[in-house]
Amino acid sequence: MAVDAAFLGILQTQAEGEGRECVVGALITDAAGRVFVQKRSATRRLFPGCWDIAGGHLEPGETLEQALVREIREETGWELARVLDVVDVFDWEMVEDGRTLRKRDFEFLVEVAGDLERPRLQESKVTEYRWISAEDLDILKENRSDPDIAVYNLVKQALTLKGVV
To answer: Which end of the chain has fewer CB atoms at under 10 Å, N or C?
Structure first.
């Protein structure tokens, strides 16, 4: 069952009502039940050399679905086909220029349209990509410390939802 735009709107309204900026993540799946990940370049400010999923912050006036469409297209060249499920929602904070920014991250299990064997990666930001199955999960811990295995946990949750873990 797919997640509809009305439900996404409710999630966004709640987050914004609590003073949180929204962030989206796309756990992109293929027909084999694997999840797409990409490795951040060593020059990235946050999580250099770490595996990550497609996603990012909402731009002003954007909905969660519009941000998913944009981020997937920008980072892979694919088109969002449908949002299958909510994998996780979590809050976090960061300090920037002396002020605390409150965020809410929405992680979605999605299907995309396009040539899944040939993503168009942002070469200045990403060095490689992989399709992860249950057997490949441990690679997601590469260059991360034990408490920081969020991508590992998200991909494992997505694989569980797909019924492959």
So the answer is: N
**Cα 67 from Cα 44, distance rounded (Å):** 21
CA nearest to 36, candidates 5, 66, 1, 80: 80
Report the alpha-carbon distance of residue 2 to residue 50 in Å, rounded: 30
Give pLDDT tens digits for 30-79: 999 999 999 999 988 888 899 999 999 999 999 999 999 999 999 999 99
Please name which of 22, 37, 23 lies closest in space to residue 75, comparing C-alpha atoms: 37
The tens digit of pLDDT for each residue in 103-137 reads: 999 999 999 999 999 999 998 899 999 999 999 99
User: Helical H runs in the chain?
Assistant: 5-17, 64-76, 150-161
Predicted TM-score of the model (pTM): 0.93
